[in-house]
Amino acid sequence: MEREDFIRLAGQAGQTLLAQNDYSSEADVVALVSRLRSQGHDPATVAAVLTQAKLRKRAKVKFGEFADQMLFTEAGLEQASRLKVAALHAGRFRAAGIKQVADLGCGIGAEAMAMASLGIQVSAFEIDEVTAAVATYNLAPFDNVIVEIADVEQLDLSKFEALFFDPARRELHGPKKASAQRHFDPANFSPNYSFCLEHAVTKPTGIKLGPGHDKRQIPTECEAQWVSVNGDLVELGLWFGKVARENIARSALLIDSSGQHEITSTESDSPNAELAEIGSYVYEPDNSLIRSSLMADFAKPLGLTLISPEIAYLSSNEKISSPWLKGYQVIDNLVFDRKKLKAYVREHNIGILEIKKRGSDISPEELRKQLAPKGEGAATLIVTRVGDAHRVLVTQPIGD
């Protein structure tokens, strides 16, 4: 979003258009634009409002009904925490008895919103002017939040009781902010990752990172938590001081429609799960278990084993129901051969074909075209590596 677009959206004309029109339907956008312009609305304002309406629709996944009262930038929405996850962050601070938090790199204000709703006094800082303006708009209902434009690395952080860092992993400057590239190198984060760690050890602190963050860069003096929402791995949180839980070095947290599920460990690392032959059932574990290296902690009590080293499929001869697992009954275990596989699909009248892969460089889309499924049957093919051989598991999904 450009500065001029925010001014248009925050103005009376923009607010009126946002409030008076229903953009949730699949109405003809061209006809809608023509109608609004024929009513005398400024074309630039109409364009900004329609863009914002699209962002609000996408934001419902993270913010629910609150999205209808918020403004968003493309990059800000991408990096913003889901509100239910931000609420968990805020809950850590409240449980630790903390009254004041500096939200350092507040983005569009999701974390500050969650903390303020729990009565915590929040000082929110954002280096990008437009993003800070959007955060101010979103946080206007709260009188216990102050938003300021600032370079976090230039602030005196000693005056705050606790800190929360959400380092920007996108370049937010330049003419094409919305299409800016992610910053995978922690040295390029804003604020810098080393800066975050330097201050994290001085007081209660949370650092939100991408879930793929290199585990070798996680310090030993914190709790590391990987969070998954409905199977979507959304973040790695590092927690220091009073907001870290005692005797927990790592945890995997799964949030789904049935509630919250967690696997924890007192150790900073775990050996891999045991290896065994493929059984009658194969399971895809939640990605939070994989990234946190808690597969063995989860698998051993249930008698689950890996089908191959470094391949994150678990197996057993027993049907297991768990929110952490997506399970499949193994119908056939075949050598990966395209011609034989095409014949198999034809002979078994398979027309609906889901193709999954791990440890294989095949393209599921291209393989599906080559297999040309036709028929009334359905199957899920799992293309993977077992030892040095590529295998195809013909499976059927299992329910609870």
UniProtKB/TrEMBL annotation:
InterPro entries: SAM-dependent_MTases_sf (IPR029063), Thump-like (IPR041497). Residues 326-397 form the THUMP-like domain. This is Unannotated protein. It comes from freshwater metagenome.
